[in-house]
Design goal:
340 residues, alpha/beta, 12 helices, 10 strands, 40% helix, binds ligand PBG, binds zinc ion
Length: 340
């Protein structure tokens, strides 16, 4: 009996020794299920209709709004360093381009469609994602078409948004990503892609779990897409709504989404884990949004932590939660950092 007691206590001691598994930097990296690689990264681009402009966005450090003529020189070095994918956001600046229906979203001479063509031609290996929404193009700044009382008309919005998605796909986008959060848009887009004969080679990435809140402010500065009245709480999810997010994820998988996205990322790691569980057969994307990026920059500037260390720490947490694709404003830095 005394021998048994001894062996229990020894095995207890042995089981408590964890340091050996991560004493070496390489062994530490083996503790993660997923390693950050360049091919996981998608870089957001704001493309304006002022072809020659390159304007820094004050609330979004190191990021610019660019016209078509600035795109290639900017991207060339990044592609050389291993940039694999971008997500495009159109920013109409010209007066008179916005209306109640967001008519200019799929203008063949608008910034998005022209840049899809240009990028496909100049960077044949770059994977082009297009954000699909109306808020950049509507006079009221909401993500859909409104009724007279200001409420969202879901059916008209879905009809319009699915047309815009197909226009981007026709122009050559590899992936369309509706961010509007109208009900039923994934199914509507999938059906129109089938009808257009594009369903076999255009990926449909759903912003399925997109939460409302105050983390999109710098983006709205960049894109000029802040709503002129009200807010987005009727269509974006309430921050506490984990169950709603799970329902939206399951719904969008059933409607034909090829990739599920969670957004924001850092404050919603539980939702990323849920998406991974519910969508274990799909790639899961996470968007580290403008407000998260701006906070990290502000804190680094205030001396709270080192920028690079936090960029890695926040990204590794997103991977740990279950994401396999990360949309991030840190992509240009990561292309350098991942080499060294
Ligand atoms: C457009 C859209 C937004 C973002 C992505 N697509 C803004 C919003 O919904 O208000 C936010 C991205 C970011 O903050 O970086 N619907
Ligand atoms: Zn929108």
């Amino acid at each position: 009996a005394s021998t048994a007691a001894t062996s229990v206590s020894i095995s207890g001691d042995i089981g408590s020794q964890l340091h050996a598994g991560y004493s070496h930097p390489l062994a530490r990296s083996w503790q993660a299920e997923r390693q950050l690689t360049k091919s996981m990264l998608i870089y957001p681009l704001f493309i304006s209709d002022q072809d020659d402009e390159e304007v820094p966005i004050p609330s979004l450090p190191n990021q610019c709004r660019r016209g078509l003529n600035r795109l290639i020189p900017f991207l060339e070095p990044l592609v050389r360093k291993g940039l694999r994918s971008v997500i495009l956001f159109g920013v109409p600046m010209q007066p008179g381009t916005k209306d109640a229906l967001g008519s200019s979203a799929d203008d063949p001479n608008g910034p998005v469609i022209r840049s899809i063509r240009l990028l496909r031609q100049r960077f044949p290996h770059l994977y082009i994602v297009c954000d699909v929404c109306l808020c950049e193009y509507t006079s009221h700044g909401h993500c859909g078409i409104l009724r007279e009382d200001g409420s969202l008309n879901n059916q008209l919005s879905v009809d319009r948004i699915s047309d815009v998605a197909v226009a981007y796909a026709r122009a050559g986008a590899h992936c369309v990503a509706p961010s509007d959060m109208n009900d039923g848009r994934i199914r509507a887009i999938k059906l129109k892609l089938i009808e257009a004969g594009l369903v076999h080679n255009v990926t449909l990435m759903s912003y399925a779990a997109k939460f409302s809140g105050c983390l999109y402010g710098p983006f709205r500065d960049a894109a000029g897409s802040a709503p002129s009245f009200g807010d987005r709480r009727c269509y974006q999810l309430p921050p506490g709504g984990r169950g709603l997010a799970r329902r939206a994820i399951v719904r969008d998988i059933n409607e034909g989404a090829d990739i599920i996205m969670v957004k924001p990322a850092g404050q919603y790691l539980d939702i990323i884990a849920d998406a991974k569980e519910l969508g274990r057969d799909l790639p899961i994307a996470a968007y580290q949004v403008s407000g998260e990026f701006a906070m990290i920059h502000a804190a680094a500037k205030a001396g709270v932590f080192d920028l690079k260390s936090m960029a890695f720490e926040s990204t590794e947490s997103i991977l740990r939660a279950g994401a396999t694709i990360i949309i991030s404003y840190f992509v240009p830095e990561f292309l350098d950092w991942l080499d060294s």
